Amino acid sequence: MDSLFWLELIADTVLLWAAGKLCGIRRRPFRLLLAGVIGGAYTLLALFVPLAATLAGKAASLALMLLASYGGEKRLWRPALAYLFLCAVYGGVAAAVTLAAGKATARALVFSAGVSLGVCALPFRFSGVRGGKCKLLLIGEGGRTTLTALQDTGDRLTDPFSGKPVIISSEGQLAPLFTEEQRNILAQTVNEAPETRLERLGKGFTLIPLRTVNGSTLARAGKASAVYQDGQALGPCRVVFSREKIECEGCDAIIGGDGI
Asked: Could you give the 3-state DSSP secondary structure of residue 104?
């Protein structure tokens, strides 16, 4: 009985985490664990209370788990669908593995979970699923700027030197971070080599390889000395200048689905 509770707790926690990962939603370990406890408790309850095993009981359990893990998200239906999708695939893979092995083992369940996540991640990986939004406060040598960023799981751009995620926004939105002299250089449209302009801009500026649907290019990048995401201090971060103004779902910047 205890083993059933723990198996359900672990499975529900992992699948809910994976659902948030696929949807580009910030995962909070305590809330995910709480949802897992609800799932484990429901499984035991369904064994002794016939009403809990009905469709209504299952729906109520699912609602409680989603509220515990991702309550407050504007589009709660997204992690809900991803979780159900993962559960369906996981159930099928686990049944096949158990049938092949002759019995259900912890190793078989872990293997099933890994295969399920890999299968479910494929459509998300190639479609670039867009997740939630967050508020960014960037502070630089010349001043500060605030941005509304879209968390996009299709954004895999990182700083080639540190390996950390970057922030992509337009030159106009990022200009307040820099000194007046640097802003004047950025605003100039003279035809000169990128290396020459970077040298004039000074320390902190570089070129980052950027691949888009239109091909590959070298994007100019500066640096914010401090970044706050939804009020949480994250330290310095590289900022990449987009050639076009970003206007997507009310956002003026893009970051990866996992945040910064």
From this structure: coil
Do 91 and 178 lie in one domain? The reply is: no
Based on the fold, state whether residues 153 and 190 are members of the same structural domain: yes
What range does the domain containing 184 cover? 130-256
Looking at the fold, whether 113 and 150 belong to one and the same domain comes out as: no
User: How many angstroms separate the CA atoms of 89 and 112, rounded?
Assistant: 9
CA distances from 101 to 95, 97, 109, 112 (A): 10, 6, 11, 12
Number of domains in the chain: 2
Q: Find the CATH number of the domain harbouring 178.
A: 2.40.70.10
- Cα(171)–Cα(152) distance, integer angstroms: 20
Per-residue pLDDT tens over the stretch 83-140: 888 888 877 777 777 777 666 666 666 677 667 666 666 555 544 445 577 889 999 9
Estimate the crossing angle of helix 194-201 against helix 180-187, to 10 degrees: 170
Whether the Cβ atoms of residue 20 and residue 70 lie closer than 8 Å to each other? yes
Contacts 24+ apart (CB under 8 A), 105-110: 106/7, 109/7, 109/11
